[in-house]
Amino acid sequence: MASYLRGSCKVKVGDSLLAKTLCHEYFGEYGFKVIKDSSDHLVYKRGSILSNFFTFNPLRWKAQVNVVITDNFLNCDFLISTIGQVPTNSEERAWEVFIDNFRRFIIDPGFDFRVENQFQLRKAKKGNWTYLKDALLVGVLAAIPMAIIGNLFGVEDLAPVGAAIGAGTYIMRRIHKERISK
Fold this sequence. Notes:
Layout: E1 4-12, H1 16-29, E2 33-37, E3 41-46, H2 49-52, E4 63-70, E5 73-81, H3 89-107, H4 113-153, H5 158-181
């Protein structure tokens, strides 16, 4: 399992100043902070490793975006940390759409990226809640026999262990199956 998702795009631009303004607008819309702002290089960051563990919104994961503008081209590289996450197909798709919508917005500043990005985020979040509900059910079902075994052998802490192992295994298998069928 990779610790990072990566993405990139290259766009021909006529006006580098306009391109920079559009970059600030797009990434600012999603809470990215400007770390570097020079005439031909922009760096944006968002999130933290800690926040990766607690969010259902993939666009809030720790991410860095490097934008270089040279010779009428904008080159953009995305590095998205997946530490604390097991990225689902819908979360990866949300990032793919986010990157593609950025490219489209640079080409056509009138393009409304917000609607499509929001749609993909809702889809990813809904899928995550489904995983969570199913994992809780599997965790409870795994905890019951472990609690019985624990009582028989005098080990009281087996139920939470069984719940964690059951839920974790279920999520990993389900995501793995979805990746294979993709």
